[in-house]
Write a structure and sequence with these properties.
There is one protein chain. With 256 residues, the chain is an alpha/beta fold. It has 3 domains: 1-42; 46-115, membrane protein fhac (Ubiquitin-like (UB roll), Roll), CATH 3.10.20.310; 118-252, Cell division protein FtsQ/DivIB (Rossmann fold, 3-Layer(aba) Sandwich). It is 35% helix and 23% strand. It is built from 6 helices and 11 strands. The strands form 2 sheets. An 8-stranded mixed beta sheet has the order 5-4-6-7-8-9-10-11. It has a 3-stranded mixed beta sheet with strand order 1-3-2. A hairpin with a 2-residue loop joins strand 7 and strand 8 (200-205). Helix 4 (168-183) packs across helix 6. The longest helix has 41 residues, at 2-42. The radius of gyration is 33 Å and the shape is elongated. It starts with a helix and ends with a strand.
Length: 256
């Protein structure tokens, strides 16, 4: 009798186990089919067709022209459109540093653009000006001209928009600019040009029309010496200040 009861109990446990297993299989299939059907229905409802494209404020780039590039997405289903496929339409615009594209419920695409803006103008030996961004990328010229420092005195062979500048002399200018930023940004705002003359880096302080010869190294020490004079005594108009000597500033009058 005991053996018979034991077998009956084991058979009942097996039956319960099989029933639970079948229930979970059925539940899994049901959930999978439900999700698929919901997703299919959701992605085909006309209510979610794209009716509007929103682009964040831009400075140099025309919003109308940006929208023209992706107007083909109007009328498409919002949740069927691949975000990467929208981003590719802007790949050739070097003024776009980064894009953030999002679906905006229920029927819009939102695009936030981080735009490259010019920080310098590079001047060629023939006098042409090319805007350069804060991350050293050559930008296409725009209709707006900004009051920005000019860099010159070295040759960049590839002046194609979108090319990142990598030149030893430009790197020296950037080192000087960074040193000035740390010490006195007011001085930086008064500089109209950085250029090389006889291989030595110079800059022009435009308020007093002064030329400052800095050389190519030890910028911190040289700037500290110059700023002491600049802030306390002021500098004389149309003079040349030579900072290349260790213990003194040489003041010269331009020839002619």
């Amino acid at each position: 009798m005991k053996t018979r009861h034991t077998r009956t109990r084991i058979n009942k446990q097996k039956s319960i186990t099989v029933s639970i297993l079948l229930f979970f299989i059925f539940l899994t299939v049901f959930v999978f089919i439900s999700v698929y059907c919901f997703k299919y229905a959701f992605c085909n409802i006309r209510y979610f067709t794209i009716k509007q494209i929103e682009i964040s404020k831009t400075y140099e780039l025309s919003q109308d022209k940006l929208k023209e590039r992706i107007n083909g997405f109007i009328g498409k289903q919002l949740y069927k459109v691949q975000i990467d496929s929208i981003a590719h339409y802007f790949d050739d615009l070097e003024r776009i540093k980064s894009l953030q594209i999002q679906r905006k419920f229920p029927n819009a695409i939102s695009i936030k653009i981080k735009e490259r803006r010019a920080h310098f103008y590079y001047k060629t030996s023939s006098g042409e000006l090319y805007p350069i961004s804060e991350d050293n990328v050559i930008l296409s010229n725009s209709n707006i001209q900004y009051d920005l420092p000019i860099v010159s005195g070295f040759e960049i062979r590839n002046l194609k928009a979108g090319v990142k500048i990598s030149h030893p002399k430009f790197n020296i200018i950037l080192s000087l600019v960074n040193a000035i930023k740390e010490m006195d940004e007011n001085l930086l705002s008064n500089i109209s040009e950085f250029y090389f003359e006889d291989g030595e880096l110079c800059f022009v302080e435009y308020q007093n029309t002064c030329k400052i010869i800095v050389g190519n190294d030890n910028f911190d020490r040289k700037l500290q010496k110059f700023l002491c004079v600049y802030k306390s005594l002021g500098i004389e108009c149309r003079k040349i200040y030579d900072l290349r000597f260790s213990n003194q500033i040489i003041l010269r009058i331009p020839e002619g």
